[in-house]
Each structure stands twice: as structure tokens, then as C-alpha cells.
Amino acid sequence: MDTPVTKAPPAAPEAIVKLQGLAFAHPNDTSGRNVLAGLDLVLPRGGFTAVVGPSGVGKSTLLRVVAGLARPSAGEVRLLARPRPDRRPAALVFQDARLMPWRQVAANVAFGLEGLHLSAAERRRRAQEALALVGLAAEADKWPAQLSGGQRQRVGLARALAVEPDLLLMDEPFSALDAITRHTLQDELLRVWQKTGASVLFVTHDLDEAAYLADRVVVLGGTPARVVHELTLDMPHPRLRGALAEEVAGLRRALEQNFVGGAGI
Amino acid sequence: MKDLPAGGPPRYPVLLSAAGLAIFLGVWEATVRTGLLPPAWVPAPSAVPLALVREIRNGIWITAVGDSLSHYATGVIIGSLLGITVGAAVALLPRFDAAQAWVARLLRPIPPLAWIPFALIWFGASQTAAAFIIGVGVFWLNYFASQSAVRAVDSGLIELAAAFGQGGFFRRLWKVVLPAASPGIFSGVRSGLGQGWMAVVAAELFGIPGVGQRMTEAAGVLATDVLVLYMLTIALLYGLTDFLFELITNRAMAWTRQ
Description:
The complex is a heterodimer of chains A (265) and B (258).
Chain A: E1 5-6, E2 15-24, E3 36-44, E4 48-52, H1 59-67, E5 74-79, E6 90-93, H2 105-110, H3 120-133, H4 149-162, E7 167-171, H5 179-196, E8 199-203, H6 207-213, E9 216-221, E10 226-232, H7 245-257
Parallel strand pairs in A: 1-5, 4-8, 4-9, 6-7, 7-8
Antiparallel strand pairs in A: 2-3, 2-5, 9-10
Helix pairs in contact in A: 3-4, 6-7
Chain B: H1 13-33, H2 47-57, H3 60-92, H4 94-107, H5 116-123, H6 127-151, H7 155-163, H8 169-204, H9 211-220, H10 224-252
């Protein structure tokens, strides 16, 4: 990868990602319009940070820049993960599960392990462990097409967990699921997060979801987008879904103040 | 729902198909036996098994089939591999695509059989000449099938490969692009298998040893029973290669049927 992700020893041990003066413009857009500009953000190690904002504001772009899939046009992305030969510093969970239909479930989960310093037996073991973590150990030999939407999303999560990332990047992973499956997977994610100690950067447009999951919510707004509001939620998990009205209302106000024009929220 | 409308599905379709074939052969046999058609024009179907026995006894059948299969296999394998490779390269490398675009546009419309004179000049009436003619046709089929299959690979899967450390050209090609494109590539190979047999017969009519050459010889002495025997032989070989390839495809592409 030739993206400018600097892997330095952690300067401040509590940070996992530092974004400074980050700007991004689509490479094919010659108008010079930035999607992101002047974006500063520090993600604490082990934290669960949610990024909210209206559709099209640049949430997914931010995630792709942090993942090294898109090159920022200015500024700096510092991923402060210790490089280790049997792990990947960051892993991504997509909105569509994005499984490879020609691989069975276990082989899909093992995909990110290929190319790491692991024997075939270790890769199998790691894939099985990750599948067990998301409750799909029994489905290892199924084809993706045989799974439900919720199961596919779990496989996508297991694939990311298998590489034991320091940073778990999630791009609206539950937005295409029905409400009941979504709630189940949210609880599973919290359990996995607490068990693995990974840092999570979770993009969503669902304010209730952000308030239920995250210990910090970052609101993106403006054109080009930057951080317009931050909210720390220090209530312990599990939280009561009905008891977060005040926090959600606060987030909604922050969004609306930055979208007087009434962009869809 | 007891009364099916006329033209609805028949109750015993296999019986009906067998009856149709029997009637076809019966009418054919009758027209020859009654002298309505002279045997020099059309053989009686009952004469064909006898011709088979004769051709097997004198060893010609197995030699002809062996020769045809040998240059068929050479031409199909080389033509398919080259076509898949070049087609995938065109889809993956924009500069190569641009560089070859007009050359392909110039050469592509030439029917493969139009290469027969050059094949004979370059290689003589040899196995190589036949393999070359077969390979040319097979190449273009695979070139287009593989090109469009590789172009159609979901860009989301390419991004997935990059996100999980498999973004390098060859890793991406091997782990994502080729598997994702394989259904399209396989169907290109399959149409090449059919086109290959057409080219076999055509090439051999120009004197390259094999089934087609034996047909020319039989036609010269009006041995129409032998002619029909080798027509059916080609049909059998084509059916057999197609069937075997379908077995392989079903095995390799099990995931597409889930």
C-alpha cells in the first residue's frame, strides 16, 4: 500500500489514530472541491467512537482514508498500531457484507489471514475462533448465498476480527438489516468489543445506534466536512435503549445547527 | 385441473421423443429401400453400423479419431489459454487495451477458416496447421469472454482485497479477479469447444489427416455410409467433450448454483 499511513511508535499511548488537518478531494474531481477539510480527530485506544452525519457528508470517505483505501489530499493520518507479522493493524467491515461467493464461510473469514506469517493450520484455527466469537461456528462450511442477511454481516465481522486488528473500522454495518437483527448484532458487537479490546471507529447515520453503542460520538458537518460536535457518553453497557432520548436529542440539535438548509438526517 | 389444454405438456415426453426418432429413421430407411433415393446420394441408416464395423476392423476409424482429437486438443488448449490471458490483460491494463485495440479490430473480423491457406503455406498439411486454424477461432471467443468477465468483476471485491492486504496486482488477480470472472471465462471456453470441432472438419477437408480427410476420401468414391458414419462420429466427439467440460464446470462452479 502506498497510502501515507505512518506507523510510528505511539507518542501518546492512549491514542490509536491521529488525524491532523485532514483534507480529501476525489482524485477525478478537478474543481478542487474538498469532501473533507481541516479535520482533526484523535481516537483513544480501546475506545468506541461513532461518526454520525447526514448522507453524503463524507463519513465513509473518512473511514476509507483511515483504512488506507483512499489517499488524503492534505493532512496526516497516523495509525499508531504496533506492526506484528501475524496481525493486521486495521480491518474493515462493509455495509454490504461483501463476501466472496466462491468461498465457503470459513474461507471468507480466513481471507485477511492469507499473506500473514501463519501456517495453514493456524489460519484455520484463527478463522474458527473468529466464527465462534460471532456465533457462527456451525456455519463454517456453508456458502455465503445460503446465509441470511444478519449471518452474512456476522461473517463480515468475523473476517475483520480474524486478523486481530488494533482498529476495527465499521461502515454502517447494520443499516441494511431489520430492526430485531440490528439490535441483536449491536449487542454482539459490544460483547466482542469488550472481549477483544479493539478500538472501534463506527460510521452510522442512525443517532440511536450511535448513542447506544459508542463512548464518544463525533458529528461531521459542513461542506467540506469537519468535526462540528463531539459528545462523550460515559454510561456503562448494557444501556437501556429507551433511556437515551436526551443524548439523541443533543446529537440531532448539533446536526440541525450545521444543516440549516435541512439536509436529510 | 384434470383436462390439460391441447398443446399442454405431454405425459411421457421421453416416449414421444423416441417415437419421433424411430419415425425419422423409418421413413429414411424406407425411402432408400424402395429406391426413392439412390444409395449413392443417401445411405440407408442400417448401413451405417456396418460401415462402423468395417472402419474399426481396418483400423482407420481409430486413427482418424486419434488424429482429429490430437490437433483439436492442441488448438483448443493453446487458443483458450492465450485468449483468456490476453482478454484478461486487456481488461486489467488500460495501456495494453489501448495499444491492442485497433490490431484486434483489424484481425478479429477475419473468419478463422480464412487462415487455412496461410496455415498450409506455413505449416504444410500437418497437425500444426490444423491446431493453428482451430486455435485462431478459439482464441477470439475466449478473448472476448474473458475480457468482459474480468471487466464485470465487482469493484467492491477489489476494494475488499485492498482492505485485507491482498491489493497487489498478482494477489488480487489470483484471489479475486479470476475467481470472480471464472463463470464467464468457463462459458467462453465452452463455446470454444464447439467452434473447435467446426474448424477441425474444415481444416481436414484440405488434406490434413483426420476425420474430415476420411470424409473427403469417402465422398470421392460415393461411400455415403462412411460419410454419415464420420458425421455422426464428429457429433459424438463434440457431445462427449461438451459433456465432460460440463462435469468439470459443475464441479468448479458449485458455488454459482447455491
